Amino acid sequence: MKFIDPHIHVTSRTTDDYEAMAKAGVAAIIEPAFWLGQPRTNVGSFQDYFSSLVGFEKFRAAQFGIRHYCTIGLNSKEANNEALAEQVMEIMPLFLAKENVVAVGEIGFDDMTALEEKYLRLQLEMAKEVDLPVLIHTPHRNKKQGTYRSMDIIEEHEIPPHLVVIDHNNEETCEEVLRRGYWAAFTIYPKTKMGNERMVEIVKKYGPERIIVDSSADWGVSDPLAVPKTGNLMLERGVPEEHVELTCYKNALAAYGQSGQFEESDWLNPEPIDQRTLFEGNSVLRGGQTPRVDKPEDDRIIQ
């Protein structure tokens, strides 16, 4: 079975993770722009980070057989630095127009401050202007209040729910998110947001429609194999295979495919891996390492 992880911060992960994900069946990933753990102090840091998401990271993933996409946005934590946020808003349209950018995100609330709400609203309007879906980050504290408030604001801006993925849901929020017509994403993150046994029960209770599983694996204690592990656990516990396929692959494809930048044909017929390839003069290998070079399949040969 193939999987999509539609929320993973692979910039913070190693090439070993890419190899393990490909082996487990992960065919495509989406990397949302996010907070790096240390606050950035100037717009150049954002500019280089966004450039890496649309450039080197896409190249690095392809060198291990995974198709990489991203979302671009001003995260909620750094929205509280108003002077910097204004400069980030100025450069965002340039990056939202890049190939492989599938949404504006992740945006939303952290501490639910006035500045977070200001830049959430501005970025919702920006998403309308560039005609892209939206990925909403919901807060870890005051989860229910932040999730409901986010949806209220989205509705004030008249963005249809089918264009919005509400992420980091739990048992407290998912029913209302689904009732209002949004995509409901769940982050399988060890010992905090959601475990995969709880995820199995949610799919059994609510069914697979508009539910999306992701890992949000990053620089913290997280698991880049959370999506395939959850899909396999669903199968073991009696969830129909078509429901697993919807929640771990097809729903993400449908939600982000609305961008026009996220198509299954991109990864079903990939170019052969050739790790001798360079990106701006650099390879993914270091001195002495043997490059992986896959040969194109010749369907005339029977071995």
UniProtKB/TrEMBL annotation:
Domain of life of the native organism: Bacteria
Pfam families: TatD_DNase (PF01026)
MF terms (GO), sorted A to Z: hydrolase activity, acting on ester bonds; metal ion binding
Keywords: Hydrolase, Metal-binding
DNA-binding listed as a keyword: no
Basic and acidic residues bias (residue ranges): 292-303
InterPro entries: Metal_Hydrolase, TatD-like, UCP005295
Region (Disordered), start-end ranges: 281-303
CDD domains in alphabetical order: TatD_DNAse
Family, per entry: Belongs to the metallo-dependent hydrolases superfamily.
PANTHER family with a match to the protein in the record: HYDROLASE TATD (PTHR42658)
Name of the protein this chain belongs to: TatD related DNase
Organism whose genome encodes this protein: Bremerella volcania
